[in-house]
């Protein structure tokens, strides 16, 4: 069995390294395959592949730029104040698993690729048999899959350190595959509403969180079923400049970044290599803040470029192989929909929640102090604000990212300390991995194999409950959004 697994490992590693874990090429090839199945002319297939790939690469430039813009603050808070801490960031989390997996459990990180393969195949099978599973989304965000496979591998080994190689891989492959399918499936309906039928779901690290806060946001609607959203607010006088997303982002980031950079001081920034010796400190702050708005605009351009191609081409795949399915893609895709200012509001209020909880950890002498990584700080909370604003308005868009920020830091500190990842400097840190996965880990650690069964049953039941809540519109929202929307309006009129 080990020999067969090793052969599969070689084949899978090549595929994963060059396609599956390179989301731009994976999205491009999905578009290419979809257009070929739709029997489009070859030049349209090639054009679609290039536009989708380039669009996703534009998104990654914007995403990477946002992270780099935040780096002086992240590094500065850690070094300037001499905090010995764990960074909540998916890449730091992946590095922590790599550094500690052999020392702690006597295993190798390479097994995560096989775990990823098993989970991905299981996700596809679950969607293929959607008639029974009620699951409609395929998780296609490859870099996220690697990060989650690594952390899931550690968590299962923590619960069952003596479990042999093959049982570990298949057990967690089933659980992780279910999580991917169920989590992305939770976002299908709310994403269709947000994007007005763009036919994609979210495949990232906060899928349960997005769904939870989107549903809770409905409670913020007025008696007439409506709520004042960010895009409905027309500010008077000079405040009207905040109606422009680029201006609002620039000003808010100038205040946010400026305050922290002033605390860090020009001497530290020069010594750390972030700022040139002869550079004006004022203009350094201005440039750093404005680049945030630049990269956010680039990210939104990338989304608009590839989503249209992906939506159209996936019809070919769904009609032939996975009828009624949608692709689960990077959460950044939603930043081009709804209110553009919701992204900035979500980031700011999420940051407030995270920083307050970090202060609480320091005051209460937590064994693990968290340094807020930019990826969970921004991508979780900005996305939550976009959905919350769409379904519940301005108040929901401010409150729920703040609550998320508190939970991200507290949950990550607890689970990373308990399972031993904190000592290696990082944890994945995003909403689902500070809530859902700690819950799963407790069940498996204290209930043993029965706990595994409970986790699987919980995940299997969730889409069944979703389906029973709306059997008439559940699949229709994907197959024919306009018809679903008309049916939905008629129901509201009847009520």
UniProtKB/TrEMBL annotation:
UniProt keyword list: Cell membrane, Membrane, Phosphotransferase system, Sugar transport, Transmembrane, Transmembrane helix, Transport
UniProt key word Repressor: no
Chief location: membrane
Transmembrane stretches, start-end: 12-37, 49-70, 112-129, 166-182, 246-269, 281-301, 321-338, 345-363, 369-387, 399-419, 439-462
Pfam family, one: EIIC-GAT
CC per GO annotation: plasma membrane
Annotated compartments: Cell membrane
Membrane topology label: Multi-pass membrane protein
InterPro entries according to UniProt: Ascorbate-PTS_EIIC, PTS_sugar-sp_permease
Record flagged with keyword Cell cycle: no
An annotated GO BP: phosphoenolpyruvate-dependent sugar phosphotransferase system
Quaternary state and interactors: Homodimer.
Family named by the database record: Belongs to the UlaA family.
UniProt xrefs under NCBIfam families: PRK09410.2-1
Function in brief: The phosphoenolpyruvate-dependent sugar phosphotransferase system (sugar PTS), a major carbohydrate active transport system, catalyzes the phosphorylation of incoming sugar substrates concomitantly with their translocation across the cell membrane. The enzyme II UlaABC PTS system is involved in ascorbate transport.
The protein's name in its UniProt record: Ascorbate-specific PTS system EIIC component
Native species: Ligilactobacillus agilis
């Amino acid at each position: 069995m080990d020999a067969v697994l090793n052969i599969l490992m070689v084949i899978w590693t090549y595929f994963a390294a060059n396609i599956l874990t390179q989301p731009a090429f994976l999205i491009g090839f999905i578009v290419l395959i979809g257009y070929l199945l739709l029997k489009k002319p070859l030049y349209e297939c090639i054009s679609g592949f290039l536009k989708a790939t380039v669009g996703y690469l534009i998104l990654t430039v914007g995403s990477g730029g946002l992270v780099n813009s935040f780096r002086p603050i992240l590094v500065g808070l850690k070094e300037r104040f001499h905090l010995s801490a764990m960074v909540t960031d998916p890449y730091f989390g992946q590095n922590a698993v790599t550094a500690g997996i052999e020392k702690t459990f006597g295993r190798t990180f390479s097994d995560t690729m096989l775990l990823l393969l098993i989970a991905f195949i299981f996700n596809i099978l679950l969607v293929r048999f959607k008639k029974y599973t009620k699951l409609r989304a395929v998780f296609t965000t490859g870099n996220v899959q690697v990060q989650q496979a690594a952390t899931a591998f550690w968590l299962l080994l923590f619960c069952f350190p003596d479990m042999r190689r093959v049982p570990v891989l298949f057990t967690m492959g089933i659980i992780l595959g279910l999580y991917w399918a169920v989590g992305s499936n939770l976002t299908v309906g709310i994403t269709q509403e947000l994007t007005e039928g763009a036919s994609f779901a979210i495949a990232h690290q906060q899928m349960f969180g997005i769904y939870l806060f989107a549903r809770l946001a409905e409670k913020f609607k007025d008696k007439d079923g409506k709520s004042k959203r960010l895009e409905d607010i027309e500010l008077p006088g000079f405040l009207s400049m905040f109606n422009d997303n680029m201006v609002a982002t620039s000003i808010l980031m100038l205040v946010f970044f400026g305050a922290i950079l002033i605390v860090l001081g020009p001497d530290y920034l020069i010594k750390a290599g972030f700022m040139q010796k002869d550079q004006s400190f004022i203009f350094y702050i201005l440039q750093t803040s404005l680049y945030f708005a630049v990269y956010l605009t680039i990210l939104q351009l990338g989304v608009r470029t590839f989503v249209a191609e992906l939506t159209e081409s996936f019809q070919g795949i769904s009609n032939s192989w996975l009828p009624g399915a949608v692709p689960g893609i990077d959460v950044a895709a939603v930043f081009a929909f709804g209110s553009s200012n919701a992204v900035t509001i979500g980031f700011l209020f999420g940051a407030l929640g995270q920083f307050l909880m970090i202060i609480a950890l320091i005051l209460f002498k937590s064994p693990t102090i968290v340094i807020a990584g930019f990826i969970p700080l921004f991508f979780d909370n900005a996305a939550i604000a976009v959905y919350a604003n769409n379904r519940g308005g301005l108040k929901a868009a401010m409150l729920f990212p703040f609550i998320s920020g508190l939970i991200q830091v507290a949950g990550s500190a607890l689970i990373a300390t308990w399972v031993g990842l904190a000592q290696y400097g990082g944890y994945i840190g995003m909403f689902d991995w500070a809530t859902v996965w700690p819950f799963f880990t407790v069940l498996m650690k204290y209930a043993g194999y029965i706990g595994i069964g409970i986790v699987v049953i919980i995940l299997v039941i969730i889409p069944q409950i979703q389906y029973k809540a709306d059997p008439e519109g559940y699949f229709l929202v994907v197959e024919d959004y306009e018809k679903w929307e008309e049916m939905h309006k008629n129901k509201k009129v009847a009520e």
